[in-house]
Specification:
The protein is mainly beta and 406 residues long. Among the domains are: 16-87, no CATH class; 104-167; 256-400, L,D-transpeptidase catalytic domain-like. The chain has 5 helices and 27 strands.
């Protein structure tokens, strides 16, 4: 079984940026005045003072305390930790990028038959050929009805029965974010809870599985920023707000690094972090896009190294098998937005994936439809792709790798 959760093993020290220092200096006196103007308790202050609306930049906050409550202000001064929560310089991708370029259908029947016409399909003979069972998807471009049943044309002179396929499969609507500036600290996305709780789930008030839970909830794929780290219960913990802690199994992070890997000299590269299952795009040595991916499972790893995109296709056919019993056979028509960078390993859209942020592929880097479309429009032949695993778990010996697959 694939380990769905990858605890982070390397994270740079998180130091307040210059803006935070300036904000700290300018606000300290006013915060102290608010605290000691009267002997009221934290609970009383929380009722009497009016907190600023959440999500409003401090620079726009007037006539209110720039925290969720005065209690949090007391906690920050008590612990010596201040949070100046400026929003990430991120925007959602163009909605048009979410659109599938073809009509896809999953083949549900092992050795599903293909016929030369809708009438032959209705009669069940003669059979032109069969599709081997496995992860099999076809595209279709016409539908005809015979005796009240639908039949799908997957190619000229090739038809399939509705009972053998599931057309218009649901696909992941997840997408990463475009960035107008490089964030000052690590950021990422919340995944589902590590236990059986369904999202949204509550954060912890301090590091540790036995800690009390906050009333603050997080939903799957919610964007977060990391302000501090800690170790507890053999896990890495991330503070994502005042007294709000998430464990490493619940998040995937991007660690902004505008210093290119040795060999990249044009300021353009794609970084794939295998430990975190994230992808970051840099242009002119600045972060411009980031998202979650799905890379190769153990034994079919995505190979670490520095590569270059050498072929790009708006859509392409992929098929392959690795296991002797052919249990991992796949047949995928019109895989969209494909960019080959390491033999048969490619960055591409994965319309068959329901989630991202986990190892799932046969070596390729799977992206959501929107992410793959954005990246395809940005990339050019020769762009650099840097694949690495900060945890060191992924083999680096080239003899461990074949040509790869979807």
């Amino acid at each position: 079984m694939v380990n769905a959760y990858l605890p982070i093993t390397s994270l740079p020290d998180i130091i307040p940026d210059d803006m935070n220092r300036l904000l700290f200096a300018s606000l300290t006196l006013s915060l102290l005045a608010a605290l000691f103007a009267s002997p009221a308790s934290a609970a009383e202050l929380a009722q009497d003072e009016v907190p600023c609306p959440t999500g409003v930049p401090i620079s726009q906050s007037m006539g209110c305390l720039p925290f969720e409550s005065t209690y949090q202000l007391h906690r920050m001064l008590e612990t010596g930790k201040f949070f100046f929560e400026e929003p990430l310089p991120a925007v959602a991708p163009d909605p048009e990028l979410y659109q599938l370029p073809f009509y896809y259908a999953r083949v549900n029947t092992p050795n599903a038959p293909i016929f030369a016409s809708p009438n032959d399909a209705a009669a069940g003979k003669p059979v032109l050929k069969y599709l081997e069972g496995g992860l099999v998807y076809v595209t279709y471009n016409d539908v005809q009805e015979v005796d009240g049943k639908n039949y799908y044309m997957i190619d000229v002179g090739q038809w399939m029965r509705r009972g053998d396929i599931s057309p218009n499969q649901l696909y992941s609507r997840f997408a990463g974010s475009e960035f107008t500036a490089t964030p000052a600290r690590p950021f990422g996305w919340v995944l589902e809870a590590a236990n059986s709780e369904a999202a949204p789930f509550r954060a912890y008030l301090s590091p540790g599985l036995s800690a009390r839970r906050s009333e603050r909830t997080f939903s799957a794929y919610e964007l977060i920023q990391v302000y501090d780290t800690a170790e507890a219960n053999g896990l890495r913990w991330f503070e994502v707000g005042p007294d709000l802690w998430l464990e490493s199994r619940q998040v995937r992070l991007v660690l902004p690094n505008t210093t290119p890997q040795e060999g990249v000299e044009n300021g353009r590269w794609i970084e794939i972090n295998l430990e975190q299952q994230t992808l970051a795009v840099y242009q002119d040595n600045q972060l411009v896009y980031a998202t979650l991916v799905a890379t190769g499972v153990p034994g079919k790893w995505t190979q670490p190294g520095l590569f270059q995109i050498y072929e790009r296709y708006e859509s392409t056919f992929m098929t392959g098998v690795f296991a002797a019993d052919r249990s991992d056979y796949y047949y995928l028509e019109d895989v969209p937005w494909t960019m080959y960078f390491d033999e048969a390993r490619a960055l591409h859209g994965a319309y068959w994936r329901a989630r991202f942020g986990f190892e799932q592929s046969s070596g390729c880097v799977n992206l959501s439809i929107a992410d793959a479309s954005w990246l395809f429009k940005w990339a050019t032949d020769g762009d650099w792709v840097w694949v690495h695993d900060p945890s060191g778990r992924t083999p680096t010996d080239p003899s461990q790798y074949g040509s790869g697959g979807a």
